[in-house]
Amino acid sequence: MSAKPKYRRILLKLSGEALMGDRDYGLDPDTVERICSDIKTVHDKGVEVCLVIGAGNIFRGMSSAASGIERTSADYMGMLATVMNALAVQSVLENSGVQTRVQSAIPMATVCEPYIRRRAVRHMKKGRAVIFAAGTGNPFFTTDTAAALRAVEMNCDALLKGTQVDGVYDKDPKTNSDAKRFDKLSYQDVLAQNLRVMDTSAIALARENKVPILVFSIHNPGGLAEVVSGSGVFTTIN
């Protein structure tokens, strides 16, 4: 795939579930390797890459909150779990030759850098991938909102959301054979039709700052490079 990249700087949002492969929880080494290989392909084309990774594979904040852990504490636990995922992806990316930095919104100097916007921009200009961990650093905000916030702060040309399916559907295509797929949507369409692509605060942030969101399947090898070059299968929200 030698098409020229359409974007100069992107933020890739991955769910924790994307790293599980066929497992019930945790990390699947083969899946993480393949995703990192896709990131390297894009990075090697000169695209500046930053990432936000969820923690659904380790910790589901909401479900645990329901079982006796107070919501704020549950959310902080979820944020800490994103740091574990970020360190894992950093390790695999560096093994493949991509210099990577992890920046956490909750400072933990022993394992990674604190989130400093100017430093993150400098890392990317020097050709390093940057992984933003610990969400926004605040409870009650999802990693989707963190992804939209960082994409805006980093002045990214696009926010790419790697999901379990190849775009946005009006209902879950895995359980509904008549689910309708969209090629293009406006931010307003997503909010009005209550399409569960990202939460409303993430969509609103992207809309206010005119950051297009591209939704594609993370399970399609080479799919990330195709999306970055404007080909492949994905849904555009702008």
Q: What is the CATH homology-level superfamily?
A: Acetylglutamate kinase-like
Terminus-to-terminus distance = 25 Å
Question: How many β strands by DSSP?
Answer: 11
Oligomer: single chain
Helix content: 25-40%
Radius of gyration: 17 Å
Global shape: globular
CATH topology title: Carbamate kinase
The major beta sheet can be summarized as: 9 strands, mixed
- CATH class reads Alpha Beta
Q: Please, how many domains?
A: 1
Low-confidence stretches: none
Structural class based on helices, strands and sheet pairing: alpha/beta
What's the pLDDT, averaged over the residues? 93
CATH architecture: 3-Layer(aba) Sandwich
Strand content: 15-25%
Order of helices and strands: EHEHHEEHEHEEEEHHEHE
SS field, number of helical segments: 8
Can you give a write-up of this model?
- With 238 residues, this protein is of the alpha/beta class.
- It has a single domain (9-237), classed as Carbamate kinase.
- It is built from eight helices and eleven strands.
- The strands form two sheets. Strands 4-3-5-2-1-6-10-11-9 form a nine-stranded mixed sheet, sandwiched between helices.
- Strand 1 (9-14), helix 1 (29-44) and strand 2 form a beta-alpha-beta unit.
- It is globular, with a radius of gyration of 17 Å.
